[in-house]
Design goal:
Blueprint (H helix, E strand, L loop, with lengths): L1 H24 L3 E2 L2 E2 L4 H9 L4 E6 L2 E8 L2 E10 L5 E7 L6 H19 L4 E6 L6 H10 L2 E8 L3 E9 L5 E9 H9 L1
Antiparallel strand pairs: 1-2, 3-4, 4-5, 5-6, 6-10, 7-8, 8-9, 9-10
């Protein structure tokens, strides 16, 4: 009976230890890849999925391709000076109409909600309410809007937003920030 109890205790301890190690090493996912590891390794893993590598400059790698079903998207992968990946910013293709921009935003929001649950923070409004789609697009390019939501998870935060370009266009952007690697970066 003592041997069985010892085995149960040892197995229980091993199981709890494994769970704690896994919980501590969990990282936010971007395109089914952990936002973790060395920048060169992360880029290689994403390139293996058929994504095009554009280049690396100042601890930031740029990739272009189909992410989450959105073609012609650009991902900027940020790393510490030591090369540890801590954030990925995904910019979807620019749109010149409010309908197309809102469609991308809503599709990405639905996808993220399916993955992370309801967002913790949602702000989606124009400063001057009303107007047709053309007026809304003008408000976007003039910065007269607030359109974003944030998903908070134990692995990190994901912020979805609409950004404006100088040429009367806008695009959807998603910022994936890994909690563990940001904490590790701040410790140094």
């Amino acid at each position: 009976m003592k041997i069985i109890m010892k085995r149960i205790i040892v197995l229980s301890f091993a199981l709890i230890s494994s769970c704690l190690v896994f919980a501590q090493s969990a990282h936010l996912l971007f395109n089914n890849k952990p936002v973790d590891g060395q920048l060169t390794d992360f880029v290689q893993a994403v390139k293996a999925e058929g994504i095009n590598y554009v280049g690396t400059q100042d601890s930031k790698a740029t990739l272009k391709g189909n992410f989450y079903g959105f073609n012609n998207s650009v991902a900027e992968v940020y790393a510490t000076q030591q090369g540890l990946v801590y954030s990925v910013i995904l910019n979807l293709e620019s749109k010149s109409s409010w309908e197309d921009l809102q469609k991308d935003y809503n599709q990405m929001k639905s996808l993220l909600t399916g993955q992370y649950g309801q967002p913790a923070d949602v702000v989606e409004h124009f400063i001057a309410e009303g107007g047709d789609a053309a007026a809304k697009m003008t408000d976007v390019t003039n910065g007269a809007y607030a359109w974003h939501c944030t998903f908070i998870t134990k692995e990190g935060n994901v912020t979805l937003s609409i950004a404006a370009e100088n040429n009367a266009k806008g695009f959807v952007t998603v910022n994936f920030v890994d909690k563990a690697n940001v904490a590790a970066m701040r410790k140094k």
